[in-house]
Sequence to fold (504 residues):
Amino acid sequence: MKGLINMTAIYARRSVYNADSISIETQIEACKNIVKGESIQIYKDNGFSGKDTDRPDFKRLMTDIKAGVINKVVVYKLDRISRSVLDVAELIQELEKLHVDFVSATENYETTTPMGKAMLNMSATFAQLERENIAARVKGAYISRSHKGFYMGGRVPYGFELTPTVICGVNTKKYIIEPIKAHTIQRMYEIYGQPNTSLGDVRRQLISEGIIRNDGSNWTTAKLSDLMRNPVYVKADSKVYEFFQNERANIVSPLDEFNGINGCYLYTGENTNRKTWDLTNQTLVVAPHEGFISSDLWLYCRKKLLGNHQIKWTKAKNSWLSGKVKCGHCGHAMVIRKANQKRTRYFVCSGRSDYNCKKPMPTIYADEFENLIKMYISRKLDDLNLKPNAKKSECDLQIHKLEAEIAGIDADIRKLVDMLMQVDEASMKYIQEKIKDLDRDKQNKLDEIQKLKSNSTNNLNLGELHNVMTLWDKLSFDDKRGVAELLIEKITVYPQSVEIIWKV
Fold:
C-alpha cells in the first residue's frame, strides 16, 4: 500500500452466523458499480460479527486511512461497518477529520451533506436496535429451551454422563447415571444424613478411600456442599416441589411432573451468584434424566446444610477489626461468624475449619470485643497526647471545590447544546469540539473526586485523632477501620487475655 494515493476503499463483511446474508462478492460488485473509473482497494472480513470492529481487514483499512492513501470509503450497507451506533459515529467523525468521504452503495448515504449525516446516524441507530433485538430473541430461545429440559451445555455434574436424546422433536442431550460415581454420591448423602456428622466427616472419608473429583483434586467441604444442594440428583416428587415453593423459587414444571423419578435443573439466572443460598426467583425445571437420591434423604441433607449456613463466614466489612485479630493458640486469623436469625456476630478461629486448632476458646462476641478494643484505643490516644490536624478537612474542601466546578461545566455544556440548533455547520463543529473538551474536563474532575474519596480512610493520621473517640459513634465503618489500621499491628486473643501490638 505504500505507493498508493487517493484510493477508494471498498469494505465488505459477512457474518459467519448468518448463512443467508449477502456474499462478500455481491457486496464488492455493488460497490464497484458506483465507483467506476476510480482506483480501488478492496478490504474484506469474512466470518466476523458486526458487534464490534475487532476485525483484521477493517484494522488494515483504518491504518491505510490514517496513512493518507484512502480518500473515500464505500460499503454495501452501513451495518457492514458495525451494528454499534458508537462505532459508526466514531468512524464517521474520524473520516471527517481526515477529509475522507463515506458512501453506502445501497442506502445512498454520504457524509458530504448535513442530511446525509443525519440519515447515517438514524440508520446506525436502527442497525443497533436490530442487533439488540437479535440478542433478545437468542436469550428468549435459550430460556424457552431450558424450560423444556434441553441440555444447555456446561460441566456435567459428578455422577453423570451425557447421551443423545430427542425432546419435542429436537436433537439434544441428557444425563445418564454413571454407576460407580453415583454409588459414591449415594454414600456422601448417607454419611451426611446421620444426625451428628458434618461435611468434614464426609470429606475425610473420601480422602481416606482415595476418591477424587473429576478434575483429579480432592473433595473440599465447599464442593461437597455445592453437590449436595444440587437437585440434579434427587428423585423429585411433591415434597421437593413444596420445598422449592416455600423457598420462593420459580417452578416452571407443573406439580404432576414431579413424579419421584426424574431429577431437576436449577437455573440461577445471569445476575445471580451460582453459589447463592437464596432460592428466590431461581428457576426449577424437571429434567429428562432420572435422579437416584430419595427425596427424603436429599431434603434432610439440604435442610441440614441450610441450617448450618445460618451460622456462616462473613466478609471483613462485618467488623472494623477484621484482619487484625489472631488466635493465641495457633496464630490463625479470628474471623467473624454470624447467626442470621439472631443477627449475632462473634469471632472464631479460622484454623478450626482446617482441623488445625482444636483448643477451646470462650465465645467472643464481636460487639463486646469491639467495645473493649475501642476502650484500649482511647487510652492509647490519651497516652499519645495528640494535637489536631486539618488534613481530612482539606480533602473535603477539595471535593466540594471540584463538585462546584463540575456543576459549572454542566451549565456550560447545556448552553452549548442549546446553541447547536441555531448555528451553521462550521460553528457546529467548533461547538461540538468545545463540548468534548468540557466533557473530558468533567470526567477528569470526577476521577479526581473518586480518588480523594477512596483515599479518605488513608487520610486519617495521628494528628487528627485527638478527638476521634468523642466522635466515634458518628464515624463511618471505613473511618473506624482506618483508625485500627493506623494504630494497631495485631490483636492476639487468649482464653483469659488480649494482647495488642501497637504501631505507635
